Amino acid sequence: MSSAATRALRQRARELIEQNARAALRAPPFDTDLAWWNVERPLTLENDLRGRVVLLAFWSTGCVHCQHVLAEVAWLQQRFAGAALAVIGVHGGEVRASDDAERSAARQRHTLLREELEYAVVDDARGVLLRRYGVRAWPTLVLLSPDGLILGQIAGEGQRAVLAALIDAALELYGERGALIGSGAGEARELPLRSERSRDFELPLRYPGKLVVDEASGRMWIADCGHHRVLECDLAGRFLRVFGSGERGLADGAAQRARFAGPEGLALCGAELLVADTRNHALRSIDLASGEVATLVGDGEVGFERAGELPVATARLSSPRDVLAADGVIWIAMAGAHQLWTLERERGLVRPAVGDGVAGLRDGAAGSARLAQPSALARAGRKLLCIDSQSGALREYDLDARALRTLVSRTARTPLEGPRALAAEALDENGEASVYLADARAHRVWRLAPSGGALSSYLGEGEPGARDGECESAQICGPEGLALAGDLLLVSDTLNHALRAVDLVEHRVRTLDLGSVPLPRVPAANASLEALELPLGAGAIDHGPRKLRLPASGAALELELELRDGEALAPGAPAQYRVRRLEGLAAARRVAGELELPRTRIELAAAGDGSLELSALFYVVDPQGACRLRTHRWRFDIQFDERAPARAVRINASLAP
């Protein structure tokens, strides 16, 4: 933007702010019964936010354009750091009649953690504030004055410069009036913020996305979205390599120095791994021989082109969520543009290939068809399969006829709710293939029979959980990645931060042990973690049940930690235990605490027979500085005996059950 254009924008912004301030349209209050996140208590316009310019960001989880606006809001926060500006997220979205308060709250918390939001967020799932503020669509941003007046409203993405000018003008105007906090409107005071992210234990895998498998070498690659990296493991889950430092960013170079931002899609292309680096709006390449990471297209900024051929050196992408290499052409599921794009590397060009750029569910020729947030790709012969996440549909693009058609959609009254990933089996003798669909909203994996056959539930009972066993009774939570490896179906169990392996012959599922995967950084200690239940998923060492005969008092458990040669407890990282009463009249005098060296003493009491579960969590670093999580679990079946001697029972957190 030229200097003249910048001055004109600032002048116009000042005029609009003054005009709207004179109109004195009072901002509706926040209801006291709405749920809040990232704060110690609900905020009010009258007290907490008085003296601050307030930016309300109305957004929804399922809207890709909202994710773009959240990035713009993060930029504005950095731009106005230290100023009297408060950002409040107002989150809405689809509400199902079957949702209870606990399930809705869990889904909301996952959303905040995935988007890495640190500012206050109010849950407007039922649209109370949406209606009061006259917001007609997500995303919308509303600017409020320090005395609670509406100063402006902007809908849509790509308005970063305009918003910055309006905020500048509001801060300038109310600063001149002495109405900003710390400049006449009262002493400077901090908002009662409390980050949800700080109340989370660090895990080896965080919100895994797409998967890709190389059966010949027995390797798989996992988009570790929440850690901004890509993992390479064997098919049993044993760690081999990592690409990406774990810090969010856009940086090429050596494997452990490169940076990604929420990578989702992966595809093998010869000796390289292609990565749809979603939050960076980029397509990246990993040389599997050297580990070097390079950017093929994108510079970190969202693109708005919807037509024409674009040079890769200057082209910008829009939330690419998956990638697929087919017949010398690289296909990109461009969720933000509602299109499928192609990259022709020899020509150095990218272009929209399917879809007119308008979100919709319309079949037909490539240029006139419509998609809605395409998010996953798979190949089935001369057909390209695509998941449309916004419309909840499975689409099929004929590479020869260059036409798109819908195979299954939510509008066709199918049980499909929120598909996010797919995997196609090899073609049968009729040139058809069965397709598996990961449904994040329904907590299931569906199977679609060949030739447009029936859609049937294959994995999961429909309730969120983490239960192994028979496929039909197993539980998963928000799956967003699938990959086939012979008779094995690998599933990214996204909201469980786990990988599951399904035996397609025995129809049973098990959770892979990812205990060898290093954490991107040493977790920091946090007192608030002591109130949380310890995560004991894949990789937890279960020492099984043990019978004890104990008196009413004087008994204790003494827990020792076992480390490998060269390992040490990670300095400053959490090392904690929890005791949970399962049944009966046995209990611990303290149900949670810090682990100590050389051993931790846990006092017990028994007024009768009972059962307890003890769990322990700690982080270790090896001689190379890699940090890993260790979790253990024991069960104690206690028989009360007043004649039993008081004693300390020695237990060991050994490396084998």
Q: Rough shape?
A: globular
Strand % is 35-45%
What structural class do the secondary elements suggest? Answer: mainly beta
Number of strands: 41
Q: What's the helix count?
A: 5
Mean pLDDT, nearest integer? Answer: 93
Overview of the structural elements:
It is a single chain. This protein has about 650 residues and is mostly beta strands. The protein has five helices and 41 strands. The strands form eight sheets. Strands 34, 35, 36, 37, 38, 39, 40 and 41 form an eight-stranded mixed β-sheet that branches. A hairpin with a 2-residue loop joins strand 21 and strand 22 (about 385-390). Helix 1 (about 5-25) packs across helix 5 (about 160-175).
Secondary structure elements and their pairing?
Layout: H1 3-23, E1 36-37, E2 53-60, H2 64-79, E3 85-92, H3 101-115, E4 120-123, H4 128-132, E5 140-144, E6 150-155, H5 160-176, E7 208-214, E8 219-224, E9 229-234, E10 239-243, E11 263-269, E12 272-277, E13 282-287, E14 293-297, E15 310-311, E16 320-326, E17 329-334, E18 339-344, E19 349-354, E20 364-365, E21 374-380, E22 383-388, E23 393-398, E24 403-409, E25 419-424, E26 435-439, E27 444-448, E28 455-459, E29 469-470, E30 481-485, E31 488-493, E32 498-503, E33 508-511, E34 541-550, E35 555-561, E36 568-569, E37 575-588, E38 592-594, E39 599-621, E40 627-640, E41 648-653
Parallel strand pairs: 2-3, 3-4, 34-40, 35-41
Antiparallel strand pairs: 1-4, 2-5, 5-6, 7-8, 8-9, 9-10, 11-12, 12-13, 13-14, 15-19, 16-17, 17-18, 18-19, 20-24, 21-22, 22-23, 23-24, 25-26, 26-27, 27-28, 29-33, 30-31, 31-32, 32-33, 35-39, 36-39, 37-38, 37-39, 39-40
Helix pairs in contact: 1-5
